[in-house]
Design brief:
alpha/beta; Rossmann fold; six-stranded parallel β-sheet; 8 helices
C-alpha cells in the first residue's frame, strides 16, 4: 500500500501558521507521506479573495520553501470555473490511484459540507479529516450526524483508499486570515502569525492596504 496523502484546500489569503500547524499535526498523527496545499481559484462559498491567484501562489511557495512534507499544488488555479472540491479529488485520484487520500477540513467547513457540490460523493474519492480543537464539540444536524457516525473510521481503516471520517484533535491556533488582513490595513504588525517571508512579500506588494 502506498503512503497516504493529505489535501488542504483554501483561499490562503494569506497562508498562516494556523493552516500550517494543523496540517503538520494531522500529517504526524495519520502518518501521511505529505500534505498538498491547494489554493482555490474561485471558491463557491466565499467572497473573491483579496490577493490574486498568482500572489497567493507566491505566498504559498515562500511559506513552503524550507518545509518538509508539504507540496504546493496549483491544479485549481489551472482549471476554469468554480473550484469544487469533488472535481479536485477526481483529479487527484487520477494522479494517485493507489494512495489513500485524506481531505483536511476544519469543523466550520465540515458543518457546512451539506451545501457543497456533490458532497456525498466526496467519501468515494477520499477520507475526510475533521480537524478539532481540544475543547471543541460538534453540534451537527441529524442528517449530517447520521452520515458522520456511519462513516466514522476504525483503526483498521488506515489502509483503505477512501470512505471514512477521521476526527483529529490538534493544537489549533486561533489565527485567521481575516484578522491578518485587518492588522495590515490598520498598520499593525502580523509578525508571529505567518512566515516572515510571506510578511515581506505582503509588504513588497502592498497587499491588504485597502478594503477593495
Amino acid at each position: 500500500m502506498n503512503k497516504a496523502i493529505g489535501i488542504l484546500g483554501g483561499t490562503f489569503d494569506p497562508i498562516h501558521f494556523g493552516h500550517l500547524r494543523s496540517a503538520l499535526e494531522v500529517s504526524e498523527q495519520l502518518n501521511l507521506a505529505h500534505v498538498r496545499l491547494i489554493p482555490s481559484a474561485r471558491p463557491p462559498h466565499r467572497n473573491e479573495p483579496h490577493a490574486t491567484p498568482q500572489q497567493r501562489l507566491m505566498m504559498l511557495h515562500l511559506a513552503m520553501k524550507n518545509a518538509d512534507g508539504f507540496i504546493v499544488d496549483d491544479r485549481e488555479l489551472q482549471r476554469d470555473g468554480v473550484s469544487y472540491s469533488v472535481d479536485t479529488l477526481i483529479s487527484l485520484r487520477q494522479d494517485f490511484p493507489d494512495n489513500p487520500l485524506f481531505l483536511l477540513l476544519g469543523t466550520d467547513a465540515f458543518l457546512g459540507i451539506q451545501t457543497w457540490h456533490k458532497w456525498q460523493d466526496l467519501l468515494e474519492l477520499a477520507h475526510i479529516v475533521v480537524i478539532r480543537r481540544p475543547d471543541e464539540t460538534l453540534a451537527m444536524p441529524m442528517e449530517l450526524n447520521t452520515w458522520y457516525q456511519q462513516h466514522l473510521a476504525m483503526p483498521n481503516d488506515e489502509q483503505s483508499l477512501a470512505g471514512n471520517i477521521w476526527p483529529v484533535t490538534v493544537t489549533q491556533l486561533a489565527i485567521s486570515a481575516t484578522a491578518i488582513r485587518s492588522a495590515v490595513l490598520e498598520g499593525k504588525s502580523p509578525q508571529f502569525l505567518l512566515p516572515d517571508a510571506v510578511i515581506q512579500l505582503i509588504s513588497q506588494l502592498g497587499l491588504y492596504r485597502s478594503n477593495e
